[in-house]
Amino acid sequence: MKKIIFLIPILLFFISCSSDKNEEPEEQVTACFEINKETFEIGEELQITNCSVGASSYEFNFGDGTTSSEDSPLFSYENSGNYTITLRVTSESGKTNTASKNITINLIENNFLYIPVLEGDFIFPINFSYVNNSFYYIENFQNIFSNGTNKYNYVEIDLVNNSFTKKYISDRDYNSGNAFINTLDDNNKLFYAVRSLSDRINSNGIILDSNWQFQSGIGSSTKVIYGSLKDDENYLYYGSFRELSTDDLYKSPSIEIRNGIGVMNERKTFNQIEQGFIGDLIKTDTGFMAFGGITNPIDFSTFDDYRPLIIFLNDSYEYVSHVTYENTTISTTSNNDLNGSFHIEKLTNNYVIYSHNEFRIINSTGDEILKTNLAQQSDIQALVSLDSEGFIISTNNYLRKYDVNGNLIKSLKFNGRLTPNLYLKDNQIYFASGYNSNYTNDTGDFSVIKSFIGSVDKDLNIINLN
Q1: Which residues are CB-contacts of 57 (< 8 A; sequence separation ≥ 6)?
Q2: Residues of the chain with CATH 2.60.40.10
């Protein structure tokens, strides 16, 4: 009997050990992630490292309405503010756990230089470039409280001392979204602006001496000059022209061939195109490619059926052929929409053309490879080529980077509305941009446009100019 009693505890011990071996350990799931820092700029990518344990699925909530199911996503913010990033993880059996971190996105405006203004000033850039070791922009200026103050200014930018020097160019009549200035071989300055009303478009030009004093005017209703390109000893002034001696009242694409002091030696007018213009011109291996537009005239002052245009010229500036793009979504019928920016740039493999928030990638014969339309049309926007790295354009409020095939790589919300040029220097991209601003005084509420200077790197990371 004693032997049987002794065996019972031993049996119970073995049963207990066997039962312990069959029990599953309790499943553990822990949400964990790290961020490379706590303060970022708008458009700067967050580097997230996931350190979660026991998770089979992930859901990041970035606090701005955006989520991601990737385990270690890359993300950037479009707007400044304080955000809470939350990670919710789930195990295979359905258990969940969460973790969160707080970050700050700095105001993008803190990185820009703002042009000083007085109450009622309405200013925006219609050209931006670099000359004599300084950036400058041409300013379209008016004051909404003062009559007779519409004018063009040359604004020199000192990025070392964060200061601006304005030089008066001329009064401004009509509307204008495009202008340029060249320093001639005799140190005089030749200025042209595209000016328009809804029913007309032409250019006015002036010559200033080396001290910015007026010398003479070159106003003309028979032509439009959009810009110039230096070719060896020649300067090619491109736009459109019509002969006064003809019955044809419509302007055809044209190039004026001038010498170093601005004197025209010859004009090439491409009458193969009844009504059209050249808005930008580049040199190629076989001659030149011109980008502009062609329209269907209704009468002397109006048109419809706007289409982007490419013209091929040989080395002697003679017409070879042209291509029009019938599938455009640009629907303008106003000359006011033709006084802005037009851009053509060479990529490593093809070309890109851009105006009115529509860009095309084309090959060397003008065949369309890709067309992209952006949401809002604007006639003062910019394009810069990064060669094999793609290109960057400005749109309303955004800078966007694309690869050479036209695939969007990154967008940066920088809040600029009117951006005539992007200038690449020392691997940085500089720009002047106009933006909307509202204010209130004793007489009411007012809307104006003000301007700022900014810079980004080739990956659209903001560079602080202050």
Answers
A1: 69, 89, 90
A2: 33-106
Residues in the chain, total: 466
Query: How far lies 339's CA from each of 184, 200, 239, 261, 359, in Å?
Result: 24, 10, 11, 26, 18
| CA separation for the pair 277, 324 (Å, rounded) | 12
Q: pLDDT below 50 — which residues of the chain?
A: 1-8, 10-15, 18-19
pLDDT at residue 438 in the model: 87
Note the CATH number of domain 33-106.
2.60.40.10
Burial group, residue 17, by CB count within 10 angstroms (0-12, 13-18, 19+): exposed
Give the rounded distance of the alpha carbon of 12 from its chain centre: 80
Its sign, for the CA torsion 205, 207, 208, 210, is: positive
Predicted pLDDT of residue 2:
47
Q: With 0.90 as the threshold, say if the pTM is over it.
A: no
Tell me what pLDDT residue 7 has: 46
Please report the pLDDT score of residue 1 as a whole number. 47
According to DSSP, the β-strands at 276-283 and 288-297 are: antiparallel
For position 4, what pLDDT does the model report?
Answer: 47
Q: CA dist 241 to 16, 283, 334, 379, 439, Å? A: 102, 21, 18, 21, 43
CATH number of 113-457: 2.130.10.10
Question: How many whole angstroms separate alpha carbon 72 and alpha carbon 51?
Answer: 9
Burial of 200 (0-12, 13-18, 19+ CB in 10 A): middle
Each residue's pLDDT tens digit, 368-423: 999 999 876 677 999 999 999 999 999 988 999 999 999 999 999 999 999 999 99
Beta strand pairing call for 96-105 and 39-40? parallel
Domain(s) labelled CATH 2.130.10.10 in the chain stretch across 113-457
Q: Nearest to residue 210, comparing CAs of 195, 188, 191, 230?
A: 188
Tens of pLDDT, residues 152-208: 999 999 999 999 999 999 998 888 999 999 999 999 999 999 998 877 888 989 999
